[in-house]
Write a structure and sequence with these properties.
alpha/beta, five-stranded mixed β-sheet, about 15% helix, 10 strands, 2 helices
Length: about 140
């Protein structure tokens, strides 16, 4: 009985204080750039561009290697499917960049070791959350 009580107390404490993680699906699209815009973005050396697309409506604390790069509110504009974006610079593609998105009100986070061999990372709040690595950039209208 004491063990059951201890487990329930630990679970309650974790849910009340700690963050929840969320299920994330990852896709890697090994495609080449096709448009003129793709070529322009791909010409920028040692940078991966991250776009926050569908599903954002929360205060976020975004860090790269525990350094805050964004602390504010992101809300998706559903007419174009975009909430915002940022770029991560690096010296060598063998570097380790840990991207962490902490959703303040929803109390969960996404932690990703960024694959620097791609030029674009699209983060979409679908069910489940979807991270797409690609070398193409969507045209926004």
């Amino acid at each position: 009985m004491k063990l059951l009580c201890l487990i329930l107390c630990a679970f309650t404490f974790q849910k009340g204080i700690a963050q929840d993680s969320v299920h994330v699906k990852r896709e890697f699209w090994n495609n080449k750039s096709e448009s003129r815009a793709d070529s322009i973005w791909n010409s920028v050396q040692n940078t991966i561009f991250i776009s926050f697309d569908e599903g954002f409506d929360d205060s976020l604390n975004i860090t790269v290697n525990d350094k805050v790069v964004f602390n504010g509110y992101l809300k998706t504009n559903y007419s174009i499917g975009y909430a915002g974006g940022l770029g991560i610079n690096f010296n060598d593609s063998s570097e380790v960049k840990i991207l962490k998105l902490h959703f303040v009100n929803a109390n969960f986070y996404i932690r990703e070791k960024v694959n620097l061999s791609y030029k674009s990372l699209q983060i979409r709040g679908l069910n489940p959350w979807l991270l797409i690595y690609t070398n193409q950039f969507p045209m926004r209208e």
